[in-house]
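Collaborator request, handled under Task 6.
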Amino acid sequence: MGSGGDLPSFVVHEHHARTHHFDLRLEHGSVLASWAVPKGVPEKAGAKHLAIRTEDHAMEYRDFEGTIPEGEYGAGEVTVWDHGTFEPLKWEEDRIEVVLHGGRLQGRYVLVPFRRAGAGQWLVLKAKEG
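Structure tokens returned to the collaborator:
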């Protein structure tokens, strides 16, 4: 897979906050575009999970692991669940397609707004290969 120096990076944080969830973060420009994914990023082709758009995070957050203190936004334990690089296939307002090259997550993923569920609600799905 080469050095990956040319490809943007991604990270999935496991977040033991008030509600246990995962945070999917994709490098976009100079920030990490972020979604909270309550059930985790799907690993089986065709599976869809709710992804809630959250605020962009600084690039330095890519390697963060530790405890966010009580009283602060997102208080709880944060660990890196997976990380790697991705190939951006499409990045539009209503569709993001990427190919992830991580330790656990591999393959094509699509994020689309889940408009019926409301503002900031997305679906993340693992695309079927072929």
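The cover message to the collaborator said: "The mean pLDDT is 93. The longest strand covers residues 76-92. Please let us know whether this matches your experimental observations."
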